[in-house]
Amino acid sequence: MMVTKRRSLRAAVVGALGAASLALAGTAMAATPAAHTTAPAAARTAQTVKASITATPSVSSVRAWTLFRVTGKTTGLPAGSKVTLQQKQGTKWVTLPASTPVARSGSYALRVELGLKGKNDLRMVSGSTTSPVFDVTVR
Fold first, then answer.
1. CA 111 → CA 47, 53, 95, 127, distances in Å?
2. pLDDT band, residue 47 (cuts 50/70/90)
3. Would you tell me the crossing angle of helices 2-31 and 33-48 to the nearest 10 degrees?
4. What pLDDT does residue 49 have?
């Protein structure tokens, strides 16, 4: 007999708590519909921004195996994304072992050494997004 009273008391308490939580949830949802409509709009705006990369070398001419910097800004790429240097060798773009993460501000800076003498066509790449081609002459 005692077990039945406890079970019915427990069921009544659970039912009352469930009804109270539903009432509170309904009130909370009714009080904030504007917040739900503005957040997806902001997310859609962020998703529709086309990704782009700029790249600027610190020098236009450098001696072989001398360090120089490539700096630039990105838009539409999340912070922490890697940007990688590519070099045109013949008709193919070759990925070089030089990459750096994008900062929260969208900027990046990469230290580079090149050994292939002559005019080097270079670009920065992240996924399918590429920067305009820039050149550095190695003497």
1. 30, 17, 15, 20
2. low
3. 60
4. 80
From CA 58, how far away is CA 63, in angstroms rounded?
13
70 SS3 class: strand
Burial letters for 36-61: b for 16+ Cβ neighbours within 10 Å, e otherwise?
A: eeeeeeeeeeeeeeeebbbbebeeee
DSSP 97: E
pTM over 0.90: no
Q: Go through the domains of the chain in sequence order and give each one's CATH number.
A: 2-48 (no CATH), 52-138 (2.60.40.10)
Q: In which residue are the tokens 């001398």 written? A: 66
Please compute, for residue 70, the number of CA atoms within 13 A of its CA located in the half-sphere on the CB side.
29
Nearest 10 degrees: Cα torsion 87, 89, 93, 96 = -40
> Hey, what are 103's tokens?
């900062």
The residue among 75 and 5 whose pLDDT is bigger is 75
